[in-house]
Design a protein that fits this description.
59% helix, alpha+beta, single chain
């Protein structure tokens, strides 16, 4: 994955705060985006599956159906890369 979707970016942003379960991630994203980004269960768990497969996050705890994940170094790098990319886009948008 080279460019993250907005939802993916916000999910990594959530994990950059610390380990979370899916419900905590969805709540963080909705709060942080001021309600602009709302993750339904299908979208959220698709992203979590992709991130786990890409080794951006790892499962740290399972309690019944509740699974907690933490960001990995690879995930932190992807998050930081996306921040840099978005900053370059904002610079490009400035009038010349």
């Amino acid at each position: 994955m080279e460019i993250l979707t907005e939802s993916m970016f916000y999910v990594l942003m959530a994990f950059a705060q610390g380990p979370m379960c899916g419900i905590d991630v969805a709540d963080f994203v909705e709060r942080r985006s001021g309600g602009r980004v709302v993750l339904g269960p299908a979208t959220l768990y698709t992203i979590l599956g992709k991130f786990e497969k890409e080794k951006y996050i790892r499962e740290t705890e399972v309690e019944g159906r509740k699974r907690t994940y933490a960001i990995t170094e690879k995930g932190k790098d992807a998050y930081e890369d996306e921040i840099r990319r978005l900053r370059r886009c904002l610079e490009d948008a400035k009038p010349v």
